[in-house]
Design a protein that fits this description.
Elements lengths: L1 E2 L3 H22 L4 H21 L1 E2 L18 E10 L5 E9 L14 E9 L11 H4 L2 E7 L4 E7 L13 E2 L6
Antiparallel strand pairs: 1-2, 3-4, 5-6, 5-8, 6-7
């Protein structure tokens, strides 16, 4: 398992803050071992959660020109036909996947092909279940085409930064792999 390069600063900062908190608790409340151990266990659990958030597990992928793979881990919450106004400007099948904080937060392209559009959209930070979150939140849109079909992938996430949206013309997989 690897850790995403964007996570090292966060992991280091969380480790430093938790070490200072634990040091202070042990220094001032050392005569209350139950409190010290409780704070230590909670700190360790929180630290492991932060590390797991940035993990990139090793995976075996089935690839092929006629296959469409899931672009991320998570739970499929909606499959419906919707009007797509950004690129296709007609009705398309939308598959919405909700990524909980416990899911691996690495996004991949669902097909092998050429990047036809890579567009960053500044926006709000509405909660994921808000009805307008997919249109008003900060997001990144990528259209990938392979000669047979074009697929639009939208990533709604605060972690989507404009500088991370520079993709090679032909790309399959994750930038972090």
């Amino acid at each position: 398992m690897k850790i995403h390069r964007e996570g090292f600063a966060t992991i280091s900062l969380v480790f430093l803050v938790l070490a200072l908190i634990n040091g202070a608790v042990f220094y001032w409340f050392g005569n209350a071992p139950a409190l010290c151990w409780t704070v230590s266990i909670i700190s360790l659990a929180f630290f492991l959660f932060i590390v797991s958030f940035f993990r990139i597990p090793s995976r075996q992928y089935t690839t092929g020109d006629s296959l469409v793979v899931s672009p991320c881990d998570g739970k499929v919450v909606v499959i419906e036909e919707v009007y797509e106004p950004e690129y296709f400007k007609d009705k398309r099948l939308q598959v919405s996947i909700f990524m909980s904080p416990a899911n691996v937060h690495v996004n991949r392209n669902p097909i092998r092909g050429t990047v036809k559009l890579s567009q960053y959209h500044a926006g709000k930070y509405l909660v994921a279940w808000h009805p307008k979150s997919s249109t008003e939140n900060e997001r990144h849109s990528v259209v990938i085409g392979n000669g047979k079909t074009d697929i639009l992938v939208k990533t709604n996430c605060r972690c989507t930064c404009p500088q991370d949206c520079e993709l090679p013309e032909t790309w399959h997989g994750s930038k972090s792999e």
